[in-house]
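Lab notebook, design round three. We kept the backbone fixed and only want residue identities now. Task for the bench partner: fill in a sequence for the structure below.
Input structure tokens:
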């Protein structure tokens, strides 16, 4: 909740004005039963119509002032709550963007999405409810009690004696409901994850006829969410019935006791009518307070979940330059005795070393899970190695500011994304790139299909590029990576959907048009990397072979076997 106050503080004077208006509107509302009691017990028996109209007009004026004050205050509370929530959502989104890959692995994408949506919504509702009822309900409660004490202390004490019961109920409900709502939000993360996976893989699910399995999987998490919500609801639902029962019991006792006191001449009938009005206000105030506590329990749980993300420490800090080592004769890319583990149990990459000069091409080959993509993650500094160094031009990448580091790369990931918009928009991707460069990048990427589409570069691409084939998507993504003329081009299995002829033309275009670009190529095709200056053959995070194609054909049985299987090439050194 400390994080929440940081966002409330800039709006504290606006919120204070809201509360003042709400206080004034509630205060004049408290005057209405008192004026009514005066009319019934004093003015009506005297037959003074002028005084009756005057007091009646006062009641009408109070009602109008209360109505206007509450409307204005409610609108102001919506404005301030919206601004606070907008700031929280913005900072949360920025923080999520800055998290390291390791932190995001622990947080998970579904949890990040639910914190950014449902949790911020709960915070908004809590802030709005507190501003609307946080002043009105206590003023009605305390003011109503004071007014009833002034009218008749004996009747007021009947009701006041029942308030501790409601207080105890509210305390225990709040104590047990906050953990339940926290649990509910955690289960909601699971629901988001299942839905996200289902939508992303809907084609595979339908192709394999696994719709029933997915329905059962969703039913399980949905049922868990429903049961958790039911338990939380059962706890919080106790407050309203108990409060209503206690207050109605008090109301009944007031009527009974009041009837005896009227009969004995100790009070006038107007007092009982005013008491009923005040008790109605007090009843609504107590119900409002219980609703505040229910909303508070949800909002507090959500605020804690949001704060957990906002308070995450910076994981991949930039190390001061003086702490980084410089190499005398610097390679463009160098891995120096690098070891890394995602989980801390067993190494995913162990003691990896290689050098790559400017303009050279590195090919990485190996079975699934051998560490190919891990090398790229370390090169891009999505993770830091557990041991060893990754260097660019002799400088430890930990000493390079992120903006400067990222500008060096053009990247096509194995599971990359395409946004809704035009083809040109996807190639530029919010960068200041002129038309000539966009067309040149598309030409080098062998994206000739663009000219065949209606509108060319202005042709529309739907969400996730679902109106493009797999090969068209990959060529569009390669064009995006080339458009900024990067120092280092990273292609993670980026040509798997291309036919061999197109793949060959692409590699030729890269050699001819991007001679000074250092290329890191991850692929399962020997034909795609046979012309690379250095080829790494990985097996379970270790290098089983390193060298060019000819060298590996002579020295690496694993590489030779793959080459012979794919290319039918049985000549050593071919």
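Proposed sequence:
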């Amino acid at each position: 909740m400390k994080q929440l106050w940081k966002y409330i503080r800039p709006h504290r004077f606006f919120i204070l004005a809201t509360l003042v208006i709400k206080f004034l509107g509630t205060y004049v509302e408290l005057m209405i039963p008192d004026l009514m009691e005066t009319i019934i017990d004093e003015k009506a028996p005297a037959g003074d119509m002028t005084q009756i109209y005057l007091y009646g007009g006062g009641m009408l004026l109070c009602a109008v002032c209360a109505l206007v004050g509450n409307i204005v205050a409610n609108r102001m509370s919506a404005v301030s709550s919206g601004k606070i929530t907008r700031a929280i959502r913005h900072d949360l989104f920025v923080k999520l963007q800055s998290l390291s890959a390791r932190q995001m692995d622990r947080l998970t994408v579904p949890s990040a999405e639910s914190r950014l949506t449902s949790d911020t919504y709960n915070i908004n509702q809590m802030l709005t409810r507190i501003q609307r009822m946080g002043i009105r309900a206590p003023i009605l409660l305390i003011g109503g009690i004071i007014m009833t004490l002034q009218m008749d202390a004996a009747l007021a004490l009947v009701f006041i004696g029942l308030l501790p019961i409601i207080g105890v109920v509210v305390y225990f409900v709040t104590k047990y409901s906050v953990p339940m709502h926290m649990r509910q939000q955690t289960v909601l993360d699971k629901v988001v994850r299942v839905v996200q996976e289902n939508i992303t893989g809907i084609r595979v699910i339908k192709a394999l006829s696994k719709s029933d399995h997915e329905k059962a999987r969703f039913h399980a998490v949905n049922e868990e969410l429903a049961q958790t919500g039911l338990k939380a609801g059962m706890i919080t639902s106790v407050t309203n019935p108990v409060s209503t029962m206690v207050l109605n019991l008090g109301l009944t006792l007031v009527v009974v006791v009041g009837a005896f006191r009227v009969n004995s001449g100790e009070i006038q009938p107007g007092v009982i009518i005013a008491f009923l009005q005040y008790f109605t206000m007090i009843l609504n105030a107590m119900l409002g307070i219980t609703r505040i506590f229910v909303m508070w329990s949800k909002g507090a749980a959500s605020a804690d979940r949001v704060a957990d993300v906002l308070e995450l420490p910076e994981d991949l800090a930039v190390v001061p330059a003086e702490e980084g080592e410089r190499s005398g004769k610097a390679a463009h890319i160098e891995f120096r005795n690098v070891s890394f583990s995602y989980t801390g149990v067993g190494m995913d990459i162990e003691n990896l070393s290689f050098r790559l000069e400017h303009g050279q091409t590195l090919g990485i080959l190996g079975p699934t899970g051998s560490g190919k993509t891990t090398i790229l993650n370390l090169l891009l500094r999505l993770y830091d190695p557990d041991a060893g160094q990754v260097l660019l031009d002799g400088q430890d990448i930990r000493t390079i500011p992120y903006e400067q580091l990222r500008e060096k790369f053009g990247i096509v990931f194995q599971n990359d994304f395409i946004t809704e918009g035009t083809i040109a928009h996807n190639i530029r991707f919010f960068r200041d790139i002129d038309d000539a460069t966009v067309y040149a990048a598309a030409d080098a990427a062998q994206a000739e299909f663009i000219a065949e589409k209606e509108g060319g570069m202005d042709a529309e691409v739907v969400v996730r590029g679902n109106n493009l084939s797999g090969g068209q998507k990959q060529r569009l993504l390669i064009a995006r990576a080339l458009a900024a003329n990067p120092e280092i081009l990273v292609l993670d299995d980026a040509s798997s959907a291309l036919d061999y002829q197109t793949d060959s033309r692409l590699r030729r275009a890269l050699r001819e048009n991007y001679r000074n670009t250092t290329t890191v190529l991850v692929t399962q095709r020997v034909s795609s990397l046979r012309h690379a200056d250095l080829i790494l053959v990985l097996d379970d995070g270790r290098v089983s072979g390193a060298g060019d194609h000819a060298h590996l054909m002579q020295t690496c049985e694993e590489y030779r076997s793959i080459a012979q299987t794919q290319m039918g090439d049985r000549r050593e050194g071919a």
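Keep this in mind before ordering anything: The domain at 417-485 is CATH 3.40.50.300 (Rossmann fold).
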